[in-house]
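Complex 355.
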Amino acid sequence: MEHIPTTMRAAVTRDWNDIHIEDVPVPALEPGDVLVQVGACGICGTDLKIVTGVYKGSWPPSLPFIQGHEWAGTVAVIGEGVTGFQVGDRVAAENHKGCGTCANCRRGRYNLCEVARSKGKAYQLYGHSAQGAFAEYAARPAALLHKLPDAVSFEEGTIVNQGALGLHAIRRCRIEHGDTVAVIGPGLIGLITVQLAKAVGATRVIVAGRGPRLELARELGADYLVDISTTDTVEGIRSLTNGIGADCAFECAGAPESVVASINCVKRGGRVALVGLTGNKNVAFNTDRLALDEVDMFGVRSSPNAYPELINLIAAGKVNVRKLVSRIYPLERITEAFEAFRDREGGVIRMVIKF
Ligand SMILES: [Zn+2]
Ligand SMILES: [Zn+2]
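Predicted structure with zinc ion bound:
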């Protein structure tokens, strides 16, 4: 076994909007844990919010804190009682650790663990409420780790987290062969959802958005584009479906107006997945539309039980995540990476810190 140091370099959020690169202790292992040498960790839109302190008190509970929750690496130390992993295994990590005993956890819905909002360690959301992976090492319960085949790089591995969210959304809406799917918001999750919808049998995928990401959507499999800088989202989607509407819409923009558009662009009996977050905004829409047209709406949170299948889809080339990694930075330049991502420099989709 390689020598494991006692300290590691980490990006420590010392104060709001103030990240320092520091030497901190390598995390200690509890029984059932694995120590992973982080290979790469992506910067998520949520990281940009966490660092400003908008969720202070819960994400993170207190400062200083190490963020980072979209990552992959190499198993370095196997903790007590862990089976199924070996030192040197390449892995991607989930964030949600459910308590394992509440009714939702027992049903496999550990993303909705019933003790998540109580204090204590039974439930953890790594990178949000528990230490993340903008660091050389991270300790995680073995149950949160999934092996990555050699064909999937660590940079690609950082997209598994969001990719699995997309897969969870696809499952929630039960996309079927022949479905017409609308994706509103061609950001990272939207561009993954386009590919997943095609992979599970949707025949027509319409993407509504603006800017260079629209063309990327086409490259990644979108059949029709609606440029919302010139065309109304709902009208655009309806005119591409003979006025009927899509079977299913994925709201991936997190904007109140696109939530409304997602409801109004599906056909009678259609389905809507809310994948984006508006940031606690209230959205006004006509609920009769839901009732009289029996439109089903699905909330989508995280990625329960979705990592293995998503990893297989990436390894098989069914989902291209390479094009979604826009830039790679070393840990020392993380603040610069945060700023460039916040400003969407050059239309970047995902920034990745590589170790
Ligand atoms: Zn994230
Ligand atoms: Zn639970």
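DSSP finds eleven helices and 17 strands in the chain.
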